[in-house]
Write a structure and sequence with these properties.
The protein is an all-beta fold and about 400 residues long. It contains no helices and 23 strands. A hairpin with a 2-residue loop joins strand 19 (about 345-350) and strand 20. Pfam families: Cohesin.
């Protein structure tokens, strides 16, 4: 299951929704027919694109009927990423982020790419465009963001329209009137549901997995000081109480736990080194993205800020926005170190709105040490007042989905 963490630092999350200047933006998939074992390809088609500078959405399909083979995409020479991960085989994530100051305009219809499948069953099935797990979102070069399916005409693709396969008791699929895979119902042999004491399941009259109750051997519940479980009179795992050796509870400055007189994990208090308060995400187990503070910047002077991360583990994708008062700062440049397998890309959506995106090219996941500088972004200061740069719309994906 794909997990996303949304983190809002220093203020407001800005969500923009607007119409596409009266145009009806459309995204669709073509229909196709084929035989079992044949590879067929559906066209991904765009229509009424007006200044479109980015898009993302999900495509889902039935893995019992279709097997993913390949996908490619391209808009005006810029790559459209179509990503299918083994941990979510039923999902194809579509991402287009050229970071051009001028969006793409084409009344269409025009072909964005192709998605190819191998047909596993001779039945009608839909390939659907939607908002889960990757939210549907289109942006244009005027800074508008379209997040609702009401703003976009969506047409799903159909494979083998009108074909109804005949269910059998040997096709390896629960279909027809079956109550299990190739069993049950009026047409197939009954499903085997009789519990046994060796089926690896706690069922029937058992009180544990394949043990207990009137039919199976008693469950082994006698606690010991070496069974890897805190049970019996133990006060910890295999320690403490009247039967086992005392648990080692003396806190140290290197045990990875905030205990004793510590004010942070292995730091602070009278016994350990002081905690470093300016480390990004200190003491946190979640993904953190931080922007450093700078002070005493003269009006019209140039300055740069480091964007750092912590708990950056097995990350496959990242996007966020930097929002600030346009009258206070003028964005000038950014640099990104080579620590990532693929470049972090930044695009000035509008004055006061910068969008960043990173996609791991092979989706194997990238990990960085805590407090690694992800990017350095530079501005010209145009005010003597305090300016807050907010991180908004942060989304992070990892190899666990």
């Amino acid at each position: 299951m794909r997990n996303f963490y949304t983190l809002l630092l220093s203020g407001l999350l800005l969500c923009l929704t607007a119409g596409l200047n009266g145009q009806t933006l459309g995204i669709s998939l073509s229909d196709v027919d084929g035989e079992v074992g044949e590879t067929v390809c559906l066209d991904l088609i765009g229509e009424n694109f007006v200044g479109i500078s980015g898009m993302q959405f999900s495509i889902t399909y039935d893995t019992l009927v279709l097997e993913y083979v390949s996908a490619t995409g391209n808009i005006n020479g810029n790559n459209v990423s179509l990503i299918n991960n083994s941990n979510r085989p039923e999902v194809i994530r579509v991402v287009y982020a050229p970071f051009s100051s001028t969006g793409y305009t084409d009344p269409g219809p025009f072909v964005i790419g192709q998605i190819c499948f191998r047909i596993l069953q001779e039945v009608e099935t839909e390939v659907e465009i939607g908002s889960s797990p990757t939210p549907l979102e289109f942006t244009d070069d005027e800074g508008n963001i379209f997040e609702d399916e009401d703003d976009v005409n969506i047409t799903n693709g159909t494979v083998n329209s009108g074909v109804v396969g005949m269910a059998t008791c040997t096709d390896g699929v629960q279909n027809g009137s079956e109550t299990g895979v190739d069993c049950g119902g009026p047409d197939c042999a009954p499903c085997m549901v009789t519990p046994t004491c060796s089926d690896g399941i706690m069922n029937g009259n058992e009180t544990g997995v394949d043990c207990g109750g009137p039919d199976c051997a008693p469950c082994m519940v006698t606690p010991t000081c070496s069974d890897g479980i805190m049970n019996g009179n133990e006060t910890g795992v295999d320690c403490g109480g009247p039967d086992c050796a005392p648990c080692m509870v003396t806190p140290t400055c290197s045990d990875g736990i905030m205990n004793g007189n510590e004010t942070g994990v292995d730091c602070g208090g009278p016994d350990c080194a002081p905690c470093t308060a300016d480390e990004c995400g200190a003491g946190s187990s979640q993904f953190n993205l931080c922007i450093e503070d700078v002070c005493d910047i003269a009006v019209n002077a140039a300055f740069c800020l480091d964007i750092t991360v912590s708990n950056f583990t097995n990350i496959t994708g990242l996007q966020f926005e930097l929002n600030y008062p346009a009258a206070n700062l003028e964005y000038t440049s950014f640099t990104s170190p080579s620590a990532l397998g693929a470049a972090l890309q930044l695009n000035e959506n509008a004055d006061g709105d910068i969008r960043a995106i990173y996609i791991d090219s092979d989706q194997s996941g990238e990990s960085l040490p805590d407090n690694t500088v992800l990017a350095t972004i530079c501005f010209t200061n145009e005010t003597a007042s305090t300016t807050v740069i907010e991180v908004a719309s942060l989304q992070v994906g990892d190899t666990d989905g």
